[in-house]
Design brief:
With 391 residues, the protein is mainly alpha-helical. It has helices spanning 2-12, 24-46, 50-73, 84-101, 110-131, 136-159, 164-184, 194-220, 226-247, 250-260, 265-277, 279-298, 306-331, 336-347, 349-352, 357-387. It folds into two domains: 23-191, no CATH class; 198-391, no CATH class. Helices cover 79% and strands 0% of the residues.
Length: 391
């Protein structure tokens, strides 16, 4: 009888993570996030106005904050053991409903979106409570997160009864308060496996880049011409440039910094700032670029409309500015060439609405690859040491 009781307790408890390897269930969970990203792009594509763009970014922010919460969770517990596995499946189902609601999140499915999102976050908090059963410091942090989560979900539900500017403003307040929760309630009690946490976010960047490639295919709409072929090749070159900017050196250096950081508050705040917060403008930038690529492939000979031109150029700028802030937080130095190129992207907006979309796509590719070439040469031996594990 005692043995049966212990076995049941084990099944109902959470097993703490030991290894750094990202597990298959975590990648399986990310599949619903892939759909959510695609839905965000569709929302903005079907309403290519400033209002539609803001709505898309707000929805993406809510989705991002829920995803990064699960990244923290699975860096504490083993997602494939005990009751956690079943709870993760349930969270996936709720997240899928959230993704389905995205195109109408500000309209006919606003309340359904808020309720499904609440279910995703409730499962997250419940699993953290399970994991913190014997850790008072973690339990205190989880309680604070639960409070900010409840406020955020409640405001989203309230926003479903509004429309227009008031609805968007309440969404902004909900997202801001929810994301600010870790600042309000402290960071001392959180736990994470640094190598796993860094890899988890690197993989989500890959997923976002995959969305940009999907956008190329959707934009082509099963048609093929010389212009579409050129735009597709340039689109892949742009996605490759964004990949290089992150994975050539940045991902390796930031992972090392997180691993070497002092365990406890210092490491937790570095993870919170560098990954939970500063990866958002990178991922948002990639999603905006995906929108620009989709519209470019739809009509390569015409110039982009102002909003979609801003999505393409502003998306690249957001990605680069995210990197500037990321480096500043991690190594306390300023990447001047990436900052300068981000400003150039904004300066190109008047040109982008006058010349063919294919031409502006070629220009931004040339600028990005020139910067990559400069950095590759100028980093020289330091880059080789980082990439080959000697530094």
């Amino acid at each position: 009888m005692a043995t049966d009781t212990r076995a049941q307790a084990s099944r109902l408890s959470a097993v703490l993570r030991e290894g750094e390897r990202v597990m298959p269930l975590e990648l399986f969970f990310d599949l619903v996030f892939v759909l959510a990203l695609t839905q965000c792009t569709s929302l903005m594509s079907h309403d290519p106005t400033w209002s539609g763009l803001v709505q898309g970014v707000l929805v993406l922010g809510v989705l991002w904050w829920s995803w990064t919460g699960y990244a923290w969770l699975t860096s504490v517990v083993d997602p494939e053991e005990g009751a956690v596995r079943i709870a993760m499946f349930a969270a996936m189902a709720a997240f899928l409903i959230v993704a389905i609601c995205v195109p109408e999140a500000f309209d006919s499915l606003a309340l359904e979106f808020a309720l499904a999102y609440g279910a995703v976050r409730a499962a997250h908090i419940a699993l953290f409570v399970l994991a913190s059963r014997e850790d008072p410091a973690l339990r205190s942090s989880v309680t604070g997160l639960g409070i900010s989560t409840a406020i955020g979900v409640g405001l989203l539900a309230g926003a479903s009864a509004l429309d227009g500017l008031a609805q968007g403003a309440l969404w902004g307040v909900a997202l801001g308060l929810d994301m600010a929760g870790p600042y309000f309630f402290g960071s001392e009690g959180w736990k994470l496996v640094p190598g796993h946490f860094a890899e988890r976010h690197a993989l989500i960047v890959i997923i976002a880049l995959g969305e940009s490639i999907v956008a190329i295919g959707l934009g082509a709409a099963a048609q093929l011409s010389v212009g579409i072929v050129a735009a597709a090749v340039l689109g892949i070159a742009l996605a490759a440039a964004l990949w290089w900017i992150y994975f050539d050196v940045v991902a390796l250096v930031s992972r090392g910094r997180l691993v070497r950081a002092e365990e406890g508050r210092k490491r937790n705040e570095l993870a919170r700032d560098s990954y939970s917060y500063l990866h958002f403008p990178m991922v948002a930038g990639i999603v905006l670029v995906a929108l620009g690529l989709k519209k470019t492939l739809a009509d390569v000979d015409d110039s982009l409309e102002t909003v979609t031109a801003f999505a393409l150029l502003g998306g690249i700028a957001s990605y680069l500015l995210g990197h500037v802030a990321f480096r500043l937080r991690n190594v306390h130095t300023l990447n001047r060439q990436r900052l300068a190129l981000a400003l150039v992207m904004f300066a190109l907006l008047p040109l982008a609405v006058e010349i063919p979309a294919l031409a502006i796509l070629a220009i931004v590719n040339a600028l990005l690859w020139l910067m990559i070439t400069y950095e590759t040469i100028s980093y020289g031996e330091a880059r080789e040491r980082v990439r080959h594990g000697a530094g």
